[in-house]
UniProtKB/TrEMBL annotation:
Enzymatic class: transferase
Species this protein is from: mine drainage metagenome
Protein name (Swiss-Prot/TrEMBL): GDP-mannose-dependent alpha-(1-6)-phosphatidylinositol monomannoside mannosyltransferase
Lineage: unclassified sequences, metagenomes, ecological metagenomes
UniProtKB keywords: Glycosyltransferase, Transferase
Sequence ranges assigned to domain Glycosyl transferase family in this UniProt record: 197-361
PANTHER family: SULFOQUINOVOSYL TRANSFERASE SQD2
Length: 376
């Protein structure tokens, strides 16, 4: 089945997570919208509210809705009202739901036979598959939504397997749409890297148990004193509401590690921080239903020529080439994780070779390829 790209058959991308929100899903939705325009689609994006000062010159029509960008009932109710109000336009269009927020609203509306878009396209990232399957009501609604979908995408083979295991109704509809670098991301030459007095180990990601900050700190604490003295650990990311950041700071206080917390930073500041880093660490772990489906920051680090240390969980092995662009350790083997850090700290030539391989790896990922796989 091919999709109509004519102006009379627009593509509506509806999301709760879009710029200026930060994070992998927000980047994914923005870049898939841009890539769809590049393919010739007439694209209209519906997204959460944002200050006018944060808007860009978008290559597509942008409609900001009175949504905070959360999954609470009031937010879903407002989106549901907008969908019903615009049902005549949507009924004969392609509607793309690239994340779980609008999927939940659509699940309820799918009960109305008069409200079924001509083409419904979904993207699953990982954690929502677990959540939807665990709850009997969501499980039934998700199965119905998948049956009505024309196409479905996942970012990794791992997420695809998870989806088909939990919802076999998706079989025959699933396409792979890997993440890539932001379209405005510039891969800088290695000569731009700044030399540090200490070896900087960097983590970029919200402070959440799934991101594995504590596992990283514990591994660094386990290093021999001569290695601990050589390193500085930098943490970039917003504070959590679940007290996880307090746990991190408490563990740091018990150690002799040098740790810097940067909080949220702009894209420009983040590029500078990447260029100061020597090793990138995001030792993700499964946390309840929350899994690491891909991790765009791994590609960002690779694009900056930084070798990676991580855990072989979820879809991480599809973002990091173990032994080539970084080193992955099993999540239940802390000694192996510490050994991975020690190996890179002690070997500048290995850091350099993995960093160079990472640049080449990052260039291979392109949003146009993902959009073509899903919308061709």
């Amino acid at each position: 089945m091919s999709l109509d790209r004519s102006a009379s058959h627009p593509l509506f991308l509806i999301t709760h997570e879009f710029y200026p929100r930060r994070g992998g899903i927000a980047t994914f939705t923005e870049e898939m919208a841009k890539a769809s325009v590049h393919m010739g689609y007439d694209v209209e994006v519906w997204a959460q509210s944002a200050p006018e000062s944060k808007e860009k010159a978008w290559p597509f029509r942008m409609r900001r809705l009175p949504l905070r960008g959360t999954h609470d009932f009031s937010c879903l109710l407002r989106l549901g009202r907008e969908l019903i109000r615009e049902r005549r336009r949507l009924r004969y269009a392609t509607v793309y739901l690239p994340e779980p927020g609008p999927m939940i609203a659509m699940m309820v509306l799918q009960g109305l036979k008069t409200f079924r878009p001509k083409h419904l396209i979904l993207t699953f990232h990982g954690s929502e598959i677990q959540r939807f399957h665990r709850n009997p009501i969501y499980r039934a609604l998700t199965r119905r939504l998948i049956r009505h979908a024309s196409r479905i995408s996942t970012l990794t083979h791992y997420t695809q397997r998870l989806l088909l295991d939990r919802f076999p109704e998706a079989r025959g509809k699933v396409f792979l749409t890997p993440g890539a670098l932001r379209s405005d991301f510039a891969i800088v030459p290695d000569g731009n890297r700044q030399m540090n007095r200490r070896i900087v180990i960097l983590t970029v990601g919200r402070l959440h148990p799934r991101k594995g900050h504590i596992e990283t700190i514990q591994a660094l604490m386990a290093l021999a004193p001569q290695f601990r003295r050589q390193i500085e650990y930098w943490i970039v990311g917003s504070q959590s509401k679940n007290g996880y950041d307090e746990r991190i700071r408490g563990l740091v206080a018990q150690s002799d590690l040098s740790v810097r917390f940067f909080g949220d930073v702009s894209d420009e500041e983040l590029d500078i921080i990447y260029d100061r880093a020597d090793i990138f660490a995001m030792t993700s772990v499964d946390h309840g239903d929350s899994v690491e489906g891909f991790g765009l920051v791994y590609l960002e680090a690779s694009a900056h020529g930084i070798p990676i240390v991580g855990h072989s969980v979820g879809g991480v092995a599809e973002a990091v080439m173990d032994g080539v662009t970084g080193i992955l350790a099993p999540p239940d083997r802390p000694a192996q994780l510490a050994a991975a850090f020690e190996r890179l700290i002690a070997d500048p030539s290995l850091r350099r070779s993995m960093g160079e391989a990472g640049r080449a790896w990052a260039r291979r990922h392109q949003w146009t390829k993902s959009a073509e796989a899903l919308f061709r």
